[in-house]
Structure formats: structure tokens, C-alpha cells
Amino acid sequence: MNRSFQSERDGMVERQLVARGIRDPHVLRAMRTVPRERFVDERMAPFAYDDSPLPIEAEQTISQPFMVAWMMEAAEVAPGDHVLEVGAGSGYASAVLAQVAATVHAIERHDLLTRVARERLDALAYTNIHLRTGDGTLGWPEAGPFDAILVAAAGPEVPAPLKEQLRLGGRLLMPLDIGGQGTQRLLKVVRHTPEDYEQQTLGSVAFVPLIGQHGWAEDEERAGVPASRF
Ligand code: SAM
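Above: the input entities. Below: the C-alpha cells describing the complete assembly.
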């Protein structure tokens, strides 16, 4: 796969991000830089700049480019930030975050995905991403507190350990399942004081389930989650 995807990447940024209101120059630069085709199976590479999530190993998905950009902009990720990502999947969003943040700690529950993501990130020479397999609903307490926490899977509530690992002034972005029936809203939480968290709903989304101690139990994972989920 020697072909350069730069023109597809630039087109994706203009048509899918700028046209939909993404303005943060750090986010746009990062999205113009990270080769999404390197985070999917070679057979999926021709579709890497489609406006959609794509299937990856372990029946999971690489997030839609717009979703990565939207969450990162809403999380106000800035140079020097320490970021936690829950649900590393392919490693793509970790790479985008690592273009701007000082460090990214990323947790993925499927060890297969962690191993494949690590290979991809090593091949692209990322040195500021720390990746591990585990239950991301518990966060990464030894590495916190974090300026921003991005959760890429939908749970019933914001996991308490993640709220605790947010720095004062820190921002957490997460899709929340509300009222059953698969309805999800993207939630932004800002920690103002140790006890005072402000919550804001940003819009409707469709993510795979967050499975873990502070998410859904494994047997609650609903059968037949559409592959179109972010
Ligand atoms: N942002 C990723 C990317 O760019 O490839 C896509 C993430 S995918 C939509 C969501 C991921 O969350 C899946 O890989 C899933 O295995 C993972 N996940 C679900 N529950 C988790 C948990 N408790 N801890 C860590 N990862 C979890």
C-alpha cells in the first residue's frame, strides 16, 4: 500500500469536518495528518475516508472521522494536555489526540485490538501514547488526573472513577444511553470544583456499548448492534 491518501484526507477534512462546523485548528491539522488507512485492514483502505465508521477486528469499529473531530473539539484538547481515551479500538483516535496532546493514555478491553493498535502506532512512531488492555470504566488512576477524557462507547451513566480522575477544569466527553431503546446522547461534563460537575448534552449519537464494571455487564450487551455504530 504505497499510495498516498493525502488528497482523500484533505477532502475528508473539508467536506466532512469544516463543512459541518469543526473550526479548532489543532483538530483540523491533526485530522489532515493522521493516515486513517493505516488503522484498518488493507482491504478496507480504499474506504478509509468514507464518512462512516468501518469494521475492525473483534467485531468493533473505527470511529467516523467526524465523530473523532467533534469529540476532540468539544473536549477542547490543547497542546500540553494529558488525555485519557476509553475504547482505543484501532488506535486511530489515540493517534489524532496524540498529535495535539502531550500524552494519551488509552484503554481497550479487547487484547487483540490493543496488540494490533500498538503495532500500528509503533509503525507510525508515536511515542506519547500509552496503551493497555483493561476495563476503561475504572480509568487509569496512576496516570491521572486528566485534562480531557474521551469515552468511545456508550454506557448507562458516567463512570464515577472517570469523574474522579478529571482535573479541575477538565472536560469529559461520553455517549450516554438514555431511556433504553438504543437512544444515545453525547454528553460533555466539566469539573469545576472537586464536587461540582457541569453537564451538557451535545447531540444524538450511536456508539457500541461500554462494557465494564461501571458500564454494561457483558451479558447486557444487546445482540445485533448495527455495524454502522461509531
Ligand atoms: N476510537 C476508536 C477508533 O478510532 O478506532 C474506536 C472505538 S470503538 C467505537 C469502541 C471501543 O470501545 C471498542 O473497541 C470496544 O471494545 C471498546 N470498549 C467497550 N467497553 C470498554 C471498556 N470498558 N474499556 C475499554 N474499552 C472498551
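Note for the figure: Residues 6-220 form a domain with the Rossmann fold fold (CATH 3.40.50.150).
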